[in-house]
Write a structure and sequence with these properties.
Layout (H helix, E strand, L loop, with lengths): L1 E7 L4 H11 L5 E8 L5 H8 L4 E2 L8 H14 L4 E5 L7 H6 L4 E5 L11 H8 L3 E8 L9 E8 L6 H25 L1 E5 L2 E5 L1
Parallel strand pairs: 1-2, 1-4, 2-3, 4-5
Antiparallel strand pairs: 5-6, 6-7, 8-9
Helix pairs in contact: 1-6, 5-6
Length: 200
């Protein structure tokens, strides 16, 4: 069974959606460790309630590379094969990305390459787009940039607020993140340029 390591910074709702999919037997994997960079992250508390191993390495005074070496060591100690980012708010170092090549997944709340970075849902709403959504992608050394696994489209309704749009996008995140992970772990796929192509 594939061993997952989850990195989070906040509530970890995508982590919880994936954990539910694992518990329901929809994803054949196990969560080996959940790592947070904030001790008070609700996602860590939720992981402990599920009986999962949690870690919160101290980061004060450490540069990105030094901190990430701690993460790499912890993930390897727990036999992690795939890394799942679930609202992890630190930018990963090149060394970290090289340690898990094509095995780090992220979900971003926009249709990349539109609106990378923080607060993408509000960026999209303020820009006046008619369609928004979310993107599951592999992580590379650039921000919100790696090859795209799948996307889901969310229409912007005339009576939407930035918060109501964000809530509908989040529901799609929970759906496609688990489904993308399931497919990557059970189906044949290749990366063709910037596309992840699933093969029969």
């Amino acid at each position: 069974m594939t061993r997952l390591g989850v990195l989070l910074s906040g509530r970890g709702s995508n982590f919880q959606a994936i954990a539910e999919s694992i518990s329901a037997g929809r994803i054949s994997a196990g969560i080996a460790v959940v790592i947070g960079n904030r001790a008070d992250a609700p996602g860590l508390a939720a992981a402990r309630e599920r009986g999962l191993t949690t870690i919160c390495p101290p980061s004060k005074g450490l540069d990105r590379e030094t901190y990430d070496r701690q993460l790499i060591a912890a993930l390897r100690e727990h036999g992690v094969e795939w890394v799942v980012l679930a609202g992890y708010m630190r930018i990963l170092s090149a060394e970290f990305i090289r340690a898990f090549p094509r095995r780090i997944l992220n979900i971003h709340p926009s249709l990349l390459p539109a609106f990378p970075g923080l607060d993408a849902q509000h960026q999209a709403f303020d820009y006046g787009v008619k369609l928004s959504g979310c993107t599951v992608h592999f992580v590379d050394e650039h921000l919100d940039h790696g090859p795209i696994v799948t996307q889901a489209m969310v229409p912007v309704d005339p009576d939407d607020t930035a918060d109501s749009l964000a809530a509908r996008i989040l529901a799609e995140e929970h759906r496609i993140y688990s489904e993308s992970l399931r497919r990557l772990l059970t189906e044949d796929w290749r990366i063709d340029g910037r596309r992840v192509v699933f093969t029969p």
